[in-house]
Input
Amino acid sequence: MLTVHSGDEDVHRALDAGAQGYLLKTASRTELVDTVRAVHAGMRRLSREAAERMDEYPVGAHLTPREIEVLRLLSRGLTNNEIAAELHVIGTTAKWFVKNILEKIGVNDRTAAVTTALARGILHCDRGRTIQKESDGLPSGGYRDGMLTTMVRLSCGAAIFAAAASTYQPSPPVNPARMKTILYGAAYYPEYMPYDRLDTDVEMMKKAGLSVVRVGESTWSSWEPRDGEFQFAWMQRMLDRLHQANIHVILGTPTYSIPTWLYRKYPDIVVTHNGTAPPLGDPYSPTYPPSLTPGYYGPRQNYDFLNPHFRQHAERIIREVIGHFKDHPAVIGYQIDNETAPTGVATEYTKAAFLRRLQQKYRTPDTINKIWGLAYWGQLVADWADLPPPDGVLNPGYKLEWENFQHDIVTDYLAWQASIVNEYKRPDQFITTCFSGGVHTNLDQWAIGRNLDVVAVNPYFATQDRLDARGIWLTGDLARSLKHTNYLVTETNAQTIGWDSRTQYPQYPGQLRLVVYAHLAAGANMVSYWHWSSLHYGQETYWKGVLSHDLEPNRAYAEVSRVAGELERLGPQLVNLAKDVKVGILYSGDSANAIRYMPFSDRVDYMSVLRQMHGALYDLNIEPDFVRVGDANLSRYAVLLVPPLYSASDDDLLQLAEYVKGGGHVVMAFKSGFTNEHSTVRHVMAPGPLRAAAGFHYQEFTSVPEPRRLTPDRYQVGDRNTGSVWQEFVVPDTAEVVESFEHPYWNFPAITRNRYGKGTVVYEATVVTNELQREIVRDLLTAAGLTGPDQRLPQAIKVRHGRNANGTLLHYYLNFSGQDQSISYPYGDGTELLTNSSVRRDQAVSVKPWDLAIVAEHSRPSAPARPLR
Output
């Protein structure tokens, strides 16, 4: 119905008469089109004005689609844990949904909720099933005597009352990561500025050529200065002004730093433990920025994700913000939270949820007694109530289970936020969240990625003479691998960075521009700086933006303007770069964490070996994917590099062995196969299920405090032909010995090679040098037929390849040095895009210091490029 009437009786009468849509004639064209689509899809859709009249309309219109789904499961008699299993969430989240439903419907127990829903038409049911007794944790104020007071026989069908929405309809089958052109911009916080300069900033952005800004994710208290008091005018003005300048907006949910009033009302939201803040450290370190000790107000993200007070208020602010701006034409997507990571702290809610997890997964305490070996030190658990909290636990199996539980908390939290945003977003808008740079062993980034339309990352990098693309491409290769498609860079260096002024290293001329193209060469479809203008107060005063503290045009602004001009011209040719990757790095978060609990060195760990292997590929100009252990499609790769696969199931190890048998080639690091998926040492000869594929066994090992020479130096690395830190006393079965230790007693093999089926395993029984690692990898790549002219380039020149959306082959040549470099271009005739000059095969191409060349081949296939897998 399209009408001018918005009174209570008008809305109620229309809905009672069967109207599926109720829209005022003042509605925008976008709202009208969305409403027609929703009604055509079988939903009921109300204008905002009409929806506001529905507060007292007793049909459940204030329930979200997710809550109605939970209500339907309640009508089947499911417990909280069973609902959690159906929805693939943790039990605490299911309990939270039930509590919300009872409050919204205005009843005290589940029976009343179901019967009220039936009476109001929210659920349509047939006779059939009996509601069962509730047995797990109940919401406060729940049931008399802890049981349902009424038994109702019913079987609910799939027809759920459509008035519960403006519900989200799945987007058309398009890939949100595939865009029309490259987006280029910065995070923007005019609310941080010492005076109102919105018009000036937007004019400067427009003049520079920026096409996107990211806003709103850091300022919950600006949105909601007091409990329940919302302010939108400041953002409305900003979005309107940006839209006038034709600048797109990514709108963030402001949940990663809680307001002071929320902390005052619910101090239990903030997690607590003893300790002091660690040193701030090096901002170029993969672990930077530091995780400040939680327990006090001030740091960000030091709250309990499962705390119901936090969830209640976080949902409210998300719905208010997204609901208010979902139809704004400037908004192209949403970022949920920001660089989310677990606290690791045991709270009342996390301990209860962890216990339920163990009960569901292992059924009885006898199971964990056995798999964790709790007889040791007499720590057997006879009853689930005896399970100790994780705070002081030293058992590796328990710690690994707790770690994975922490991963799931974050995954579920972000999925919860995505489900809320999905109820509002338009089909042409995307959902993302951003990971800080590097590979994160405290998250399940693959699981998080499944709930996103597109992945975003925040890679920061060393500058001046330390600039290279190692960290940039490690982050980019992982981001691209999570969904096998393009990704976004939501934050990266604009000028100097640091939480104080001890690490201020401005980029040399050309470095800012070079790094933009390094991101694009790895598959990024957007590059955005943190941030537009430097802060005059706060912890990140010296983490500078495009504009310095004087807020005037400067050297960075000039270089940004140059890049923006190039991308305006070339963006449609560079966007949606598709890769054909033949090499993978097999990643195991369990191995990384299990080694952290049982380290073999203070200097070397899982991640340092992973970075070394990735660095070898970087040196050789080979672009890898990251592959998670258990991935069913290992055969897509000709070569796999395997950091210490210390903690893995028999099935995962046998899958890797089958990959080799079928023709795969592997470089594998020490300690692989030693423990199972519970970090329990196998009671068979090492390396356990990998023995046949690796072609050796061992029973002993030793620490190696100083480097030991290897012989006979078949890889020709001279004095870098050493092993250190760790040595396994390898005894070959079928393996060939490639390098051995020079030692009067421990002259065992250090590197072996074994043919197994159609494939090969090269095993490193020690920590090798970077140079030796590079040559081991080069040798196996050559044997697999994966080397060529890219491996003969000057060391300072890095190259990446891909096909654009038209199928045109692009070759990026980037000079990470302060000297001129010359290469002989080895591929098909083409055009250098930045200079629009022709390039012929075998022609010498000169690349200036901190500069690049992009060659687009003239010949291209008849069909457009296939998207990334």
